[in-house]
Amino acid sequence: MQEQTEHTLSHEEMLSTAPVYAAIDIGSNTVHVVVARCFEDHVAILADELELVRIGESVNATGAISSQKRDQTIATLQKYQALAEHYAATSVFGVATEAIRRASNSAEFLAAIREATGLVVHIIGGDVEAALTFYGATYELSQHGSPPVDIAVADLGGGSMELIFAHQLQIIWSTSLPIGSGSLHDRYVPSNPPTHQEVATAQTFLLDHFQKIPAQTHLAALIFVGGSANTLLYLARYSLGVSQAETQLSYEDVVRCEGILRVLSADEVARRYPINLQRARILPAGVLIIRMLMERLQLKEIYVSAHGIREGVLLARVRYGEQWLTQLQDNTTHAGEHA
Fold it and tell me: Structure pTM?
């Protein structure tokens, strides 16, 4: 009988054997792709790109996804397919969130995508979106020593915000609120820059929703993900002198950036820093949401992560296999919303 010897894979061998997948998130503001080599507890990102399509803009205006937004999305997806092929990704997974959930023509939109690209895009509910975001935003915590015991993750998108509370990296409560940087801008703070009256009205709207969030007294950290939070971090680095390596923002940093956005037009913000003009237009609404959530949770600082739902999709695929989405839907259905 031949003796078997145990062989421990080197880092290079592990990288060569791990699958390469791509995950695409079609959101209210952006269409975002991540291509990565995937493991059960982390992902090694090969490419990360986004386009600010603002599908939610047409949904907020008419209730439907316009033909222009549809065509722009399809063109973006075709570009991402080429990117995935470049990195030899064996599968591409697509999910769609708030704006597509609300659109009256979402079925036609997804059918057009499938016909043009072959991609099957799944509309996911707020609970599944929250779980995927949590996976993506927190996987690095376990890689660097002991993570905080009680943390929260907030995924601020264009049309909704998913908020998750966790104890020892286990979700104990989550919700999806109809609050997003794009929808708040379109409905409450459309001026450039926003007027005092618009901001006051938006604050009243936000307070009504934030009262539904359970009070927290033991949170060690709040991690924000999404375009508004990452652009806020960028603005703080270039306008306030926050270190380029820093991913933490104080309440004072947030307030000072909000002050800049109350005074300068989006065009001026885009010119000075520079920030994408479309992003600069909706950033005041996003920063207002961030500041008010910090006040609701009585937090003096936040952390900003570039990771989120896309990395969560990739991790879920490796952990749960081909039925990853069904498994997540079952998990969130059984768990429900609880404190």
Answer: 0.86
CA distance 277 to 265: 10
The per-residue pLDDT for 147 is 78
Instruction: Give the integer Cα–Cα distance in Å for 37 and 94.
Output: 17
Q: pLDDT tens across 89-133, in order? A: 999 999 999 889 999 999 999 999 999 999 999 999 988 998 999
Please enumerate in sequence order all residues whose Cβ is within 8 A of that of 158, keeping only pairs 6 or more positions apart, or say none.
27, 28, 29, 30, 54, 55, 56, 98, 99, 180, 181, 182, 183, 227, 282
Cis geometry, peptide bond prior to residue 148 (ω within 30 degrees of 0): no
User: CA 14 to CA 299: how far, in whole Å?
Assistant: 40
Domains of the chain and CATH, by start: 11-126 (3.30.420.40), 141-305 (3.30.420.150)
Which letter does DSSP use for residue 62 in this model?
H
* Cβ contacts of 273 within 8 Å, gap of 6 or more: 234, 235, 238, 239
Cβ atoms of 257 and 236 within 8 Å: the answer is: yes
Residues of the chain with pLDDT under 50: 1-10, 13, 336-339
Query: 332 in helix, strand or coil?
Result: helix
- 18's CB contacts (< 8 A; 6+ apart) are 37, 38, 39, 44
- Do 70 and 112 contact (CB within 8 A), yes or no? yes
Helix (H) or strand (E) holding 225: strand 221-225
Cα–Cα distance for residue pair 134/152, rounded to 1 Å: 9
- The phi, psi pair for 197, rounded to 5°, reads -65, -40
Residue at 337: amino acid letter = E
